[in-house]
Amino acid sequence: MTVEKFAKKELLAIMAAYRGAGTRARVGPVEGMINLGAGDPDFNQPEFINKAVYEAMKEGYTHYSFGGDSGFKAAIAKYYKKYGVDIDPNTQILIESGGSQAIFKSFAAILNPGDEILILDPAYQGYRAPAAYFGATMTRANQTKDKSGLFRPDMGNIETAITEKTKAMLICNPDNPCGTVYTEKELAKLAEIAVEKDIVLIADEIYTEFVWGDNKHRAIINMPGMEERTMVLMSFSKTFAWTGCRAGYVIAGPELARLVGMVPTGICSMPVAFQKAGTLALEKGWDFVDEMRTAYKKRIDYIVPRLNEIDGISCPYPEGAFYVFADISELNVPSAKFAMDFFQKEKVRCAPGIGYGANGEGHIRFALVRPVDILKETCDRLERYAKGL
Ligand SMILES: Cc1ncc(COP(=O)(O)O)c(C=O)c1O
Fold first, then answer.
1. Which pLDDT value is given to residue 23?
2. CATH 3.40.640.10: does it fit domain 60-284?
3. Of 359, 364, 365, 367, nearest in space to 145 by CA
4. Which of 4, 95, 263, 355 is 20 to 30 A from 232 in CA distance terms?
5. Is pTM, for the whole model, over 0.90?
6. φ and ψ at 370, to 5 degrees?
């Protein structure tokens, strides 16, 4: 028997694409390795959150919860109000088991085979497979760099890339991997385009709590004409260093939210006891978030100048999120080869820019998920590696 005979054709195509990709150094633990590849925070959840899970289970929160815990949804609505948005917790929030499920469900709600979904380039890789799974075509609009070297959405490229078949446009704000935080003007223009072209806007806002300097996170769902056409994707993974416990949600206008709620993935998939702990995190977890913010900021302030001191590398300060997306194009090595060789020679894992789209070529991304002393060692190794090229 060959499983191909039975497989959903879109899944076979996704598997084939993964086989061909080979851009990441896929390896297990290696002595002396510094892993700045994945964006998994190096902070552990505070004990009061862990305990809250157990306490909730002891109290009997171990049963079905069909639409998600109402207290948790109320806490989410209260939290998101800090961005000036009034949402009805009963009709506008869907609890998911993380940002990845939020992506899948929002796509599942709207994408038919043959539809186009527009993302920017570079963009987070996790949108590609879900779009392919629903038989949709992912189209891309190149971002262009500002004076500081940060990639920003290019409105001309976006308008050109929208066709009759475009169902939705997806933005990531603050952006992974680029580190951009969208300005009010950029968001207003994107909203205007979405309304004019009559498309859905999906806003991945999972890095909302990590915004640096004078930059400010703004919610596009609050702009004129946007509530009915926006799906905001959120996750606890980065906000509360909750990557393994899986928690996330979608915020949308009531009609879109109803659609997402109809996607038949079963009963709300975030365990009820974790929803109870999530409520507590939203009430009392902010000192912990502050601690992480302070640490990330120190890491950014250390690594950006150090990277810029290395011949052939330039790197802008990110406005948000906790990655640096460094330009290595002067070194004339394709990013996938760079990431693989750097790993083999110096045991540092980073992500090659090509993984984020053709426009990401000539860049590498470091996730700042290790303390400053490890980042110092990373830069020493990078300096040595770059000199040897
Ligand atoms: C932009 C973006 N969206 C979504 C996700 C997925 O989040 P989660 O880990 O909650 O599934 C990630 C994870 O790195 C991400 O960077």
1. 44
2. yes
3. 359
4. 355
5. yes
6. -140, 155
